[in-house]
């Protein structure tokens, strides 16, 4: 069973979100998602300063099996990307929750109301 930190929120599309101070959101993919994708080989990130829209694709992750679109959990501005993931995507396979993808300054945290708790996400992936 995939590790599911309880302090995170989860999207049905398999992203995790850590809510930090001042509407800052740190986003990555879940352990379940990285296992489904297999060995990761390439990540295309948004640009710092780019505006992203809730539930719209802003990252593409490629594995030896496929490419997968990663969505932003909220609308806002990209304020950071994880360069370590760009240089070595396989670190997501090693620890999906330590290997965040990007951070945004969210316009409105109400976008997060549709996200799942760790319990609800676990129920979804095991159903």
Mean pLDDT: 95
N-to-C span: 12 Å
Residue share in β-strands:
25-35%
- List how many beta strands DSSP finds: 9
Under CATH, the topology can be stated as OB fold (Dihydrolipoamide Acetyltransferase, E2P)
Number of discrete helical segments: 4
Please outline the major beta sheet. Answer: 6 strands, antiparallel
Major β-sheet strand ordering:
1-2-3-9-8-5
Order of helices and strands: EEEHEEEEEHHEH
Could you describe the 3D structure shown?
The chain has 127 residues and is an alpha+beta fold. The chain has one domain: OB fold (Dihydrolipoamide Acetyltransferase, E2P). It is built from four helices and nine strands. The strands form two sheets. The chain has a six-stranded antiparallel beta sheet. Strand 2 and strand 3 (24-29) form a beta hairpin. It is globular.
SSE order and pairing:
Elements: E1 9-10, E2 15-19, E3 24-29, H1 31-37, E4 40-44, E5 51-52, E6 57-63, E7 67-71, E8 76-81, H2 83-87, H3 90-94, E9 102-106, H4 118-126
Antiparallel strand pairs: 1-2, 2-3, 3-9, 4-6, 5-8, 6-7, 8-9
Write a concise synopsis of the structure shown.
The protein is an alpha+beta fold and 127 residues long. Helix content is 20%, strand content 34%. Strands 1-2-3-9-8-5 form a six-stranded antiparallel beta sheet. Strands 4-6-7 form a three-stranded antiparallel beta sheet.
């Amino acid at each position: 069973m995939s590790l599911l930190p309880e302090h995170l929120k989860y999207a049905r599309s398999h992203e995790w979100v850590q809510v930090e101070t001042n509407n800052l959101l740190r986003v990555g993919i879940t352990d379940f998602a990285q296992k489904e994708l297999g060995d990761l080989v390439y990540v295309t990130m948004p640009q710092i300063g780019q505006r992203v829209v809730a539930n719209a694709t802003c990252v593409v992750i490629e594995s030896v099996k496929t490419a997968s679109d990663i969505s932003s959990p909220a609308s806002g501005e990209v304020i950071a990307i994880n360069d370590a993931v760009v240089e070595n995507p396989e670190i997501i396979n090693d620890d999906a929750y330590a290997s965040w993808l990007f951070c945004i300054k969210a316009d409105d945290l109400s976008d997060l109301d549709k996200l799942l708790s760790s319990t609800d996400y676990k129920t979804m992936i095991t159903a």
